[in-house]
Amino acid sequence: MTLLRDEHLAAAFDHAARSYDTLVAANPGYHAHLRRSARRLGLPRGGEGLRVLDLGCGTGASTAALAEVLPSADITAVDASAGMLERAAGKTWPPNVTFTHAPAERLAEAGVSGPFDAVFAAYLFRNVTDPDAVLRIVRDLLAPGGRLAVHEYTLGGRRTDRAVWTLVCRGVVQPVATLLGDGDLYRHLWRSVVEFDTADRFADRLRENGFDSVRRLPLPGWQTGITHTFTGRRPTTTETAR
């Protein structure tokens, strides 16, 4: 199959929204890993006085991680899938969390504007048609010195990383998803990872698109070598990205 993109991918997520939380709950460490990546933003004082953008919030797992780690931040959560966003917005949230329906490429049209002190993006960049364009949008939304954390499936480059990913997808995830009627989306999931950047390449992509202080950080458990946190920063006006 070809990779799903744009409105086709959003429609697939719309359909999968009803069972998405059940599937991710079966993934050991899923929510703990999101909280770990949120902490890696390194924001002070629980986010007091800060604006944070949750880009590609899905059904709200990443939003919940941010709200727990940064309870005092003003969190704007955005997703391109109306079905996923409906699930997210239907949960109980504190008043400092808001939701907006928009693809990452058209945030301005939906009224999402900076500056943000931080952007968090979980499982987003391998799903967009032009990750470089979205990274530039994110950079421009950040205040000078603002921070980015990307939580993403990016293989570490070892043959065993791809083998474990394939085993989990084809042996566990895809059969269950097919029974639920969402086989196309989860076949896309496997292929989107193996065809996307390695972890080193994605770190380089951040630098190429104007971020500095870039770090690639592993996550523990079975996802070691499969899922990473990437952190970076928009340079201040007196600095040059390096």
UniProtKB/TrEMBL annotation:
Pfam family, one: Ubie_methyltran
GO molecular-function terms, A-Z: methyltransferase activity
Gene Ontology biological process terms from the UniProt entry: antibiotic biosynthetic process; methylation
Keywords: Methyltransferase, Transferase
Stored CDD domains: AdoMet_MTases
First-tier enzyme category under EC: transferase
Keyword hit for Cell division: no
Signal peptide: none
This enzyme's EC code(s): 2.1.1.-
Protein name: Class I SAM-dependent methyltransferase
